[in-house]
Amino acid sequence: MGSLSVNSLRQVVKSLIDGPGFDRVMSKMKLISAAPGKIVCELKIEEEHTNRVGTLHGGLTATLVDVVSTAALIHTERGLPGVSVDMNVSYLSAAKLGEKILITAEVLKQGRSLAFTTVDVTNKATGKLIAQGKHTKHLGPSPSEDFFFPFCFRRTY
Question: Which cell locations does it reside in (predicted)?
Answer without folding.
Answer: Cytoplasm, Cytoskeleton, Spindle; Cytoplasm, Cytosol; Mitochondrion; Nucleus
